[in-house]
Specification:
152 residues; alpha/beta; 3-stranded parallel β-sheet
Length: 152
């Protein structure tokens, strides 16, 4: 079972009318597609947590989701979650997330890596690489930066 939010400002897409799994909420913008089991959980008051970065895409997704939740009468808890990247974080990210939290009336939870931010993680990976290489326990270095397979 899965759900997805689709915020597409260029060309709204509609769920196939023959698809038994997708329900399309019809409005000009934004359009949200969601599977019926998730709708049922939301109507029962399931908690909703949305990751926000402070960028325009995550703000739009959060606002569209909350608008949808209001329309269906969702009464469960709603949370915004911001992952602080540390020294590489845009300085306005947290203030924008806080403003969004206030605007939407939702709790904002900020999570941080205890061992340091993104740059600290990359540096740690590099030190581990060097140690493994020096100890002849590897001949292939792992990229120290984040990749789709090795996220922060």
């Amino acid at each position: 079972m899965h759900s997805h939010l689709n915020v597409d400002h260029a060309r709204p897409r509609m769920a196939s009318p023959t698809s038994p799994l997708a329900i399309s909420i019809s409005r000009a913008f934004p359009q949200i597609s969601i599977v019926p089991p998730i709708v049922d959980l939301l109507k029962q008051g399931a908690a909703v947590a949305i990751g926000v970065s402070g960028g325009k895409d995550s703000q739009a997704a959060a606002m569209a989701t909350f608008e949808y939740l209001d329309r269906i009468g969702h009464s469960g808890p709603r949370l915004l979650i911001h992952a602080d990247l540390g020294s590489v974080e845009w300085t306005d990210s947290l203030p924008i997330c806080e403003h969004l939290s206030t605007r939407l009336g939702a709790e904002l939870i900020v999570v941080r890596r205890k061992q340091g931010g993104l740059m600290d993680r990359w540096e740690s990976r590099w030190r581990s690489n060097v140690a493994r290489y020096e100890n002849l326990s590897t001949v292939t270095l792992v990229p120290c930066w984040s990749t789709p397979a090795m996220r922060f």
